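Backbone-to-sequence.
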């Protein structure tokens, strides 16, 4: 079974790793020549040449023949007449051939909640690519295979884009239909939402927002829509429908896919940084999150589906990646596909393919080479094209709240725009602290044991409080659409109740004083702002799919529209003020209140997520004009500065730290003076678990594996000298020893990590484990500054590094050790820092 896990050529390449079975999925394979540099030893250089030349001993079907092995290794296979383990192959005699897959090792190599070894997997894929290039001249099929390998990345992201666009279209249509089902039904065709139902009628004009084809629930039950009894029935149906949808969503998540809850972006960022979370991107998570996303949004909760769409797109990318062994069997390469998938998720969420690529680059991805940039752009483009072709909202756009402002903004408006940015930063910081406080309380109290009860309670409270206010009652996307757009002469809502003079030829129709309905709407919007802010604190983090983009935009759009109406009335009532007199012509409106809503939405979203460039591009793509890029940039930067002054972490980073994921943010700066000796484990002369190269028996190594939980063990010359020889992974060691035990190797056999045993050995034949030994582990000295160590973990993607002093092994540093130390420097309480 494990024979297919191995790159025999890589096993002979002493410059990176000699092991064959690996503990996890890795990432893209780039060169690892930095391990050797120009100062490699002659023996190691010769070993490297043998490794590359050994590719010639590999058959087209992946068979490694005996003549591809050095003669010394063929002799070792017959040592004392005993079958020796070759790097995890149980019971393989020296004259046998071993079947393997040159594309890479199969999935399942890393344990759950472990970090991948980027450099190891990058080197592994490099060897796979060398093999394919070397074999392309042997036949036509090998040439075709090389072309397939070169284009498989583009084909993979093409499929991801097509499927992501189709799934997003289904989700948008289903969510819109279920949202309208809270208010009524189309009896002639129940599968139509309200707009589609009214489009199917022959009526030209509708009374209010109703048409004869659409029946509200009071009308279905025989009551008048405008009567007191009809209002009570509508209220009751709204609450009951919301409870049913919320209950169904949480039960599906709890029963079938616990990972389908939440936004998913914190976990996606952690996974893209090299962390393994088994099942988080699986098919059940994809199915349940897609369904429950529609249910949760339709329940009227203060959440959105835009954030979860990123998770759904990454699930699609993960599943499709397994169709291509180049990506499915290498976690590093797979992360290229996941980065492109994240871009596609934002693309279908906002209809912003360029913003999606920048989101993946700025916010989500940890490793983003140039080829991933182009593939992400291609994937986002395809997904946006597919979604536009489906046209889920019937407006020829991929979002419901697409808006296009035509009136230009005025220079002095930069002041209120910056003011909105400051408010957005304050609101974002306040929301992050409140939500993290509540989520921490949920994790540490008994409330976390009753997720279904919590969802039902929050859904009930939201429905009861939202229905009386017409702006909190309407779906969030529809509310954003109302706030973003300017009022036309035919608008019948209170927010557009202006004292218009349609008979005057000297005054523009859109220019008029606010009527009583506008002031009523402003009070209602202020109540909506407070209500949405409070209820979103309790909603985000529950065990249902819940995005934060739309609630943040609702808060910002509400705040911005209030400020915009205020500026509009100032310009109308005081046209002679110096700020208005030079820019505003009498009789014409120069203030676009909908633009303030757009800028406010960007400000609050930036304050909550701390996004900058990608957020500006997303908002520009939403408005369809680059003429408003300066107001959005000013507000977003102000929100970023104020938010960072009040709290360094965005909402996603805060949830990463709350959940204890080992995420080392590449944007964080380190300003302490710690050394590697302050971080390494063990400290204070605590015994260190090591393996000697030729003096420990199989039983002793097995006992060490049972007594410890380390992911790997340094191999030293002897316990007295502690001179470092290499590093062996726990999983490789377990597989090798298990195979040897099945072949009848006794516990008294020596475990050899050298070519031949030193001295005379009178016991049972030794077990040769040199093949699974990493002879070139990353090492640092105990006086290395921690800043350098952090840069090594960030830029090289290390799992661990060994600490030495004058060549003697002192300890080991893992990514979790670094994160734990950094947190300890902040809180001075190491025991309260949770990491998986």
């Amino acid at each position: 079974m494990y024979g297919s896990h191995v790159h025999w050529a890589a096993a002979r390449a002493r410059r990176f790793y000699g092991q064959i079975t690996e503990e996890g999925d890795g990432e893209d394979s780039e060169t690892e020549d930095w391990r050797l540099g120009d100062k490699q030893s002659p023996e190691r250089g010769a070993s490297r040449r043998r490794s590359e030349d050994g590719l010639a001993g590999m058959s087209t079907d992946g068979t490694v023949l005996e003549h591809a092995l050095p003669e010394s290794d063929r002799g070792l296979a017959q040592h004392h007449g005993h079958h020796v383990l070759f790097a995890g192959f149980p019971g393989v005699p020296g004259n046998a051939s071993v079947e393997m897959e040159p594309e890479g090792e199969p999935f399942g190599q890393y344990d759950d909640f472990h970090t991948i070894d980027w450099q190891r997997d990058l080197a592994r894929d490099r060897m796979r690519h060398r093999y394919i290039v070397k074999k392309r001249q042997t036949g036509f099929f090998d040439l075709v295979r090389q072309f397939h390998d070169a284009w498989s990345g583009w084909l993979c992201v093409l499929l991801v884009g097509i499927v992501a666009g189709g799934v997003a279209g289904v989700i948008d249509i289903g969510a819109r239909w279920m949202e309208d089902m809270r208010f009524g039904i189309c009896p002639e065709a129940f599968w139509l939402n309200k707009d589609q139902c009214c489009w199917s009628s022959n009526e030209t004009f509708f009374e209010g927002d109703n048409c004869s084809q659409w029946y509200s629930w009071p009308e279905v039950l025989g009551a008048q829509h405008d009567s007191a009894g009809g209002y009570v029935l509508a209220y009751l149906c709204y609450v009951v429908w919301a409870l049913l949808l919320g209950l169904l969503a949480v039960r599906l998540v709890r029963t079938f896919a616990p990972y389908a809850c939440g936004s998913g972006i914190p976990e996606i960022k952690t996974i893209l940084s090299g962390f393994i979370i088994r099942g988080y991107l699986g098919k059940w998570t994809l199915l349940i999150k897609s369904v429950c996303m529609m249910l949760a949004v339709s329940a009227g909760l203060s959440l959105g589906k835009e954030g979860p769409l990123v998770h759904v797109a990454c699930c699609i990318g993960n599943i499709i990646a397994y169709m291509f062994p180049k990506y499915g069997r290498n976690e590093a390469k797979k992360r290229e596909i996941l980065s492109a998938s994240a871009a596609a998720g934002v693309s279908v969420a906002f209809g912003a393919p360029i913003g999606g690529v920048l989101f993946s680059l700025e916010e989500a991805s940890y490793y983003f080479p140039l080829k991933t940039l182009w593939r992400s752009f291609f994937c986002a483009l395809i997904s946006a094209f597919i979604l536009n072709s489906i046209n889920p909202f019937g407006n020829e756009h991929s979002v419901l709240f697409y808006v296009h402002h035509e009136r230009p903004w005025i220079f002095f408006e930069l002041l209120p725009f910056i003011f909105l940015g400051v408010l957005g930063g304050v609101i974002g910081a306040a929301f992050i602290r409140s939500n993290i406080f509540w989520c921490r309380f949920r994790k540490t109290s008994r409330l976390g044991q009753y997720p279904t009860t919590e969802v039902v309670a929050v859904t009930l409270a939201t429905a009861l409080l939202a229905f009386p206010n017409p702006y909190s009652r309407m779906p969030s996307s529809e509310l954003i659409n109302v706030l973003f757009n300017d009022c036309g002469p035919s608008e019948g809502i209170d927010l557009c109740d202006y004292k218009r003079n349609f008979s005057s030829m000297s005054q523009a129709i859109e220019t008029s004083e606010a009527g009583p309905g506008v002031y009523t709407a402003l009070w209602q919007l202020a109540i909506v702002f407070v209500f949405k802010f409070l209820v979103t604190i309790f909603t985000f983090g529950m065990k249902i799919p819940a995005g934060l983009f739309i609630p943040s935009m609702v808060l910002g759009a509400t705040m911005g529209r209030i400020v915009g109406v205020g500026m509009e009335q100032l310009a109308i009532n005081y046209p002679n003020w110096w700020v208005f007199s030079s820019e505003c012509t009498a009789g014409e409106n120069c203030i676009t209140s909908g633009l303030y809503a757009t800028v406010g939405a960007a400000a609050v979203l930036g304050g909550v997520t701390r996004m900058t460039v990608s957020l500006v591009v997303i908002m520009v793509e939403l408005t369809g004009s680059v003429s408003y890029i300066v107001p959005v940039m000013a507000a977003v930067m102000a929100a970023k500065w104020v938010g960072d002054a009040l709290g360094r972490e965005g909402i996603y980073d805060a949830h990463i730290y709350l959940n204890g994921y080992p995420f080392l943010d590449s944007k964080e700066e380190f300003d302490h003076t710690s050394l590697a000796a302050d971080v390494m484990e063990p400290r204070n002369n605590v015994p260190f678990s090591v393996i000697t190269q030729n003096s420990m028996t199989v039983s002793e190594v097995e006992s060490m594996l049972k007594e410890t939980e380390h992911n790997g063990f340094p191999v030293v010359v002897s316990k007295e000298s502690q001179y470092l020889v290499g590093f062996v992974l726990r999983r490789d060691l377990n597989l090798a020893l298990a195979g040897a035990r099945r072949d009848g190797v006794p516990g008294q056999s020596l475990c050899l990590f050298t070519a031949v045993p030193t001295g005379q050995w009178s016991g049972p034949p030794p077990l040769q484990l040199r093949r699974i030994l990493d002879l070139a582990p990353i090492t640092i000295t105990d006086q290395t500054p921690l800043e350098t160590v952090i840069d090594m973990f960030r830029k090289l993607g290390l799992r661990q590094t060994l600490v030495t002093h004058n060549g003697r092994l002192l300890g080991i540093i893992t990514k979790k050790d670094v994160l734990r130390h950094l947190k300890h420097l902040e809180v001075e309480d190491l025991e309260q820092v949770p990491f998986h």
